[in-house]
């Protein structure tokens, strides 16, 4: 008896069953670091960065993950009022009116859910009276300090007279305690004597960890402003 036209040998069927699922968005499989997540609602598999709006490498709760097409509010479990449904990078979605405190409008730019948001400076998860500011990077109080450039860009502590000498990065114009970048008192005195002839970048602007100058004070960096707190220089 001839086999049906659509007959597939058992060996091939087994091979197909062993193949990893294909991404519903791009069609490729999820292998190694490009693993896929399965939506708890529709069952479709997809790369989170492909279909769910989640950056590659971000940790996701696989037991509650929903794809972009199935996202529902964490609080009310409804997908209605889609224009007011905010989706965090972690995949969690909230209506503006379900958040505590509620948001009067959809924020422009970056938004972070209550589980992900944390002040970069003080570490609080509470926004303060003015709400989260500067793309949800800072609480209200720390945002004010950030705008005033009133803290060390390495240790994030306030600029206080008792904390000693500081230098100013010419790129971002934030102050850095000399101890926070490993600048010795001898090195600080040398920098002060050089004045405008010495240039400096803070660790963040220079793309490096805080370092100890010591024997390498001749390194050329952007222009520096140097003060002893309480005395402009």
UniProtKB/TrEMBL annotation:
PANTHER family in the record: HL01030P-RELATED, PHD FINGER PROTEIN 10
Keyword Cell cycle belongs to the record: no
Keyword Lipid metabolism among UniProt keywords: no
Compartments, as annotated in UniProt: Nucleus
Annotated source species: Chrysotila carterae (Marine alga)
Keywords: Metal-binding, Nucleus, Repeat, Transcription, Transcription regulation, Zinc, Zinc-finger
Lineage summary: Eukaryota, Haptista, Haptophyta, Prymnesiophyceae, Isochrysidales
GO molecular function: zinc ion binding
Stretches assigned to the PHD-type domain: 67-119, 149-208
Cellular component per GO, a single term: nucleus
Protein's name in the database: PHD-type domain-containing protein
InterPro entries named among the record's database cross-references: Zinc_finger_PHD-type_CS, Znf_FYVE_PHD, Znf_PHD, Znf_PHD-finger, Znf_RING/FYVE/PHD
Pfam families from the UniProt entry: PHD
């Amino acid at each position: 008896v001839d086999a049906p036209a659509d007959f597939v040998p058992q060996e091939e069927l087994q091979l197909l069953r062993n193949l990893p699922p294909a991404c519903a968005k791009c069609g490729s499989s999820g292998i190694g670091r490009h693993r896929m997540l399965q939506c708890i609602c529709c069952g479709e598999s997809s790369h989170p960065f492909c279909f769910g709006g989640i950056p590659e490498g971000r940790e996701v709760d696989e037991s509650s993950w929903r794809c972009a097409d199935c996202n529902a509010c964490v609080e009310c479990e409804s997908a209605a009022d889609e224009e007011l449904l905010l989706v965090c990078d972690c995949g969690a979605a909230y209506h503006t009116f379900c958040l505590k405190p509620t948001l009067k409008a959809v924020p422009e730019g970056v938004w972070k859910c209550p589980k992900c948001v944390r002040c970069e400076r003080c570490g609080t998860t509470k926004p303060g009276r003015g709400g989260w500011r500067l793309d949800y990077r800072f609480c209200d109080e720390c945002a004010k300090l950030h705008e005033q450039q009133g803290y060390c860009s390495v240790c994030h502590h306030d600029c206080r007279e008792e904390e000693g000498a500081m230098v100013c990065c010419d790129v971002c114009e934030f102050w850095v305690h000399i101890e926070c970048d490993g600048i010795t008192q001898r090195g600080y005195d040398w920098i002060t004597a050089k004045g405008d002839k010495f240039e400096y970048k803070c660790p963040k602007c220079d793309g490096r960890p805080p370092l100890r100058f010591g024997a390498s004070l001749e390194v050329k960096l952007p222009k520096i402003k140097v003060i002893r707190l309480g005395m402009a220089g």
